[in-house]
């Protein structure tokens, strides 16, 4: 790695807290600990030190420090941690002193994990697992992120890649031999084709997962739709037990799209309140309705709310559940098996949540898939397409073309784990990462 700087960043959350951890990575860690804390602490043990500003000797804090010599660390470099008292002044004082320390600079978002990947401590899929684990809001999301962090995708992709490289070696040997014209080419091809076909089938099976991994990361999207005044905003508030949507008697007040994230028994559910569907002259409201239609088209489930039980089905919805609202007002009974709820009295709310949860569970599964991002899916699909050409190539197919398809298939897998094109993916991944990770 060319970057010889020592980076530092707060590793714990901001705000007043009992302890604030500042994390460092890079060659100056030992010098920092000596300059701030005096006697160097033993490796991998927390040691209590009085931290002094190296510039003027002023006491900054009395804190636990930890010294972790590389390369067997998270980043693969020398690392250190300062467990400060969590006050803003203490933290700011230490950060100012570190900024002035030779060779030290504040870390950009994801910098520690980036170094871990570049130093071979983890592959790209594991780094994505770290990102997802930090983002995880529900238990199922955390489980999926931990599995990826543990290498579930990386190991599988590498195993496939190894197998393809073995086939490639066979194809290249066949190429060499065929030049000499003394080998049973067709025999070699059959064994090779069989193995490539098996990998293709395994990749295709991993892709045929209904996008569960991505959906678990994004959340199961439930759109509340229905005419103005059907009770969408009120229901959203009742479901989320938060005042996220403005409720008003005037039709057409929910002009924009309001989203609330719910944790339904460990499953992430994104509830989307939408503008009421009705003909309108109002340009702003018309834009809201256009957005509603787009959200309905993307939704996993549409709750079609209606106080009278007469709303028309929306043909473009993937899955639709009719819900009669304002059940406390009486009126026409819902259709048989339909749900009737009252946001006012809470009647029917548990049944509605159970119905949504059952659908989310069916759609997201227990998160047993290994593909969790569009990036993986695109590369795996490309790999499968190349292997498919190998599988369908007859004995008379030019061996150099078979070899090229195998090479491209292996390359696509290399992109998933980060053996190929790692920097570009890291830039994109870490643009959404937090500082200090
Ligand atoms: P939206 O336009 O579909 O979002 O509808 P709102 O949530 O703004 O509700 C419209 C009106 O119906 C408001 O006056 C609400 O107080 C009322 N409302 C909503 N839900 C219920 C309910 O369960 N029972 C009764 N009685 N009134 C409700």
Automatic annotation (TrEMBL):
Residues 1-30 form the signal peptide. GO terms for cellular component: cytoplasm. Residues 219-361 form the TrmE-type G domain. GO terms for molecular function: GTP binding; GTPase activity; metal ion binding. (6S)-5-formyl-5,6,7,8-tetrahydrofolate binds at residues 23, 81, 121, 437. InterPro entries: G_TrmE, GTP-bd, GTP-bd_TrmE_N, GTPase_MnmE, MnmE_dom2, MnmE_helical, P-loop_NTPase, Small_GTP-bd. The keyword RNA-binding does not apply. It is found in: Cytoplasm. Mg(2+) binds at residues 233, 254. One of its GO terms (biological process) is tRNA methylation. Keywords: Cytoplasm, GTP-binding, Hydrolase, Magnesium, Metal-binding, Nucleotide-binding, Potassium, Signal, tRNA processing. Its main location: cytoplasm. GTP binds at residues 229-234, 248-254, 273-276. It is an enzyme of class 3 (hydrolase). The keyword Endoplasmic reticulum does not apply. Its EC number is 3.6.-.-. Its cofactor is K(+). Binds 1 potassium ion per subunit. PANTHER family: TRNA MODIFICATION GTPASE GTPBP3, TRNA MODIFICATION GTPASE GTPBP3, MITOCHONDRIAL. Belongs to the TRAFAC class TrmE-Era-EngA-EngB-Septin-like GTPase superfamily. TrmE GTPase family. Exhibits a very high intrinsic GTPase hydrolysis rate. Involved in the addition of a carboxymethylaminomethyl (cmnm) group at the wobble position (U34) of certain tRNAs, forming tRNA-cmnm(5)s(2)U34. HAMAP family: GTPase_MnmE. Homodimer. Heterotetramer of two MnmE and two MnmG subunits. This is tRNA modification GTPase MnmE. The gene is mnmE.
């Amino acid at each position: 790695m060319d970057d010889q700087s020592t980076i530092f960043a707060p590793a714990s959350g901001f705000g007043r807290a009992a302890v604030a951890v500042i994390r460092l990575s890079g060659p100056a860690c030992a010098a920092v600990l000596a300059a701030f804390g005096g006697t160097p602490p033993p490796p991998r043990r927390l040691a209590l030190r009085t931290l002094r500003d190296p510039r003027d000797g002023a006491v900054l804090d009395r804190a636990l420090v930890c010294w972790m010599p590389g390369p067997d660390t998270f980043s693969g470099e020398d690392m250190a941690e300062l467990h400060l008292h969590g006050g803003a002044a203490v933290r700011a004082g230490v950060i100012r002193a570190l900024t002035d320390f030779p060779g030290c600079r504040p870390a950009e978002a994801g910098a520690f994990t980036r170094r871990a990947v570049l130093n071979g401590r983890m592959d790209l899929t594991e780094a994505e697992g770290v990102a997802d684990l930090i983002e995880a809001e529900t238990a199922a999301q955390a489980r999926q992120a931990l599995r990826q962090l543990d290498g579930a995708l990386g190991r599988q992709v590498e195993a496939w890649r190894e197998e393809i490289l073995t086939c490639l070696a066979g194809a290249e040997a066949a190429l060499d031999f065929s030049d000499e014209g003394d080998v049973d080419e067709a025999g070699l091809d059959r064994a090779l084709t069989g193995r490539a076909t098996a990998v293709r089938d395994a990749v295709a099976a991993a892709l045929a997962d209904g996008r569960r991994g991505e959906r678990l990361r994004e959340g199961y999207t439930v759109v509340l739709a229905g005419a103005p005044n059907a009770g969408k905003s009120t229901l959203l508030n009742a479901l989320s037990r938060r005042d996220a949507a403005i409720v008003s008697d005037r039709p057409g007040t929910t002009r924009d799209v309001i989203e609330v994230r719910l944790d339904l028994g460990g499953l992430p559910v994104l509830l989307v309140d939408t503008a009421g569907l009705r003909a309108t002259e109002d340009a702003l409201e018309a834009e809201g309705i256009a957005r509603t239609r787009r959200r309905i088209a993307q939704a996993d489930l549409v709750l079609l709310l209606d106080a009278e039980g007469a709303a028309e089905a929306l043909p473009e919805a993937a899955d639709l559940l009719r819900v009669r609202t304002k059940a406390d007002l009486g009126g026409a009974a819902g259709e048989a098996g339909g749900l009737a709820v009252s946001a006012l009295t809470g009647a029917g709310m548990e049944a509605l949540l159970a119905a949504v949860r059952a659908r989310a569970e069916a759609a997201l599964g227990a998160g047993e898939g290994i593909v969790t991002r569009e990036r993986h899916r695109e590369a795996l699909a490309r790999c499968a397409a190349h292997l498919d050409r190998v599988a369908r190539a007859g004995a008379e197919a030019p061996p150099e073309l078979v070899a090229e398809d195998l090479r491209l298939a292996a390359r696509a897998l290399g992109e998933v784990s980060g053996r190929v094109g790692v920097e570009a993916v890291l830039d994109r991944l870490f643009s959404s990462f937090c500082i200090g990770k």
